[in-house]
Amino acid sequence: YNQFISKNNVYDEVKWDKCIDLPYIDFQTIEGKKVPMYYPKDFRFTEINGSYYVEGLMWEQSAGSPHLYIKDDHHIKEGDCVIDAGVCEGNFALKYIDIVSHMYLFEMDPVWYEVLRYTFRNYENKVTIVNKAVSDKTTKNTCKIDDIVLNQKADFVKMDVEGAELDAIEGAKKTFCKNDIKSSICCYHRYQDENKIRQKLEGYGYHTTVSRGYMLFLESDDTWEIGDFRRGIVYGNR
Is the pTM above the cut of 0.90? Predict the structure, then answer.
C-alpha cells in the first residue's frame, strides 16, 4: 500500500465459543450491534502477553486507502440487495447485514465457508452463502453470479476474487445490465486489469472511476518484472 494513513491498529480480542469449538471476535455492525465473527481454529492470530488478537481488521478500509470499498455517495443503503464476491472472514458483509434486504455471499475456500455459516447463522432469512468460485461459467466448482441471483434486484457489488474479477463480471452480465448497481471491484491482482475491468463495466453502460492512491502488489510475479504501481478499486455506477 502507499502510505495513506498512520497505522494505528485496532486489536480485537479473540474469544472462544465452547459450544461450537471456534474462535471469534466481537464485531460491530453499522447499526452499532456487537455480533460474533468466527475464525478457523488454526488462524494465525497476533499474540500479546499470552492473549490473542485480530490486528488491524478494518485498516485497509480507512479513509484514503486505495482499497476502499465504500466512499462518499458510493455506499450501501437501507434495503439494498448486496453481492459480496470473495467474502473471506465476512467483515464487509457483516458490517451492513442489519440494513440490507438480502446478501449473496460467494466464498470458494471451504475453510472460510465453514465459519461463515456460524457468523451469519442468525441472519439465515436474508443471506445466501455459495461455496463456489465466481466465474463466467457454472460448473461443479464455479458459478456465474447470474445463475445464483437470477431475477433478484441487485444494488451493490463488492468483488475481491484474487484476479478472477474479469471472468466474474462476465458471469454477472445480466445482473449488471438489468440493474443500476454500484460496484467496488478489485483491480490490483493482475497487470492492466484496471483498464480491462473499466472497459467491461463501461460496455454494460456504467460510468467508472478508480480509488485514490496506488498499491504495490508483491504477490504477483509480473510485479517484479514491471515494477508497477496499481490502482486498488474500480468503482462503477450509472
Answer: yes
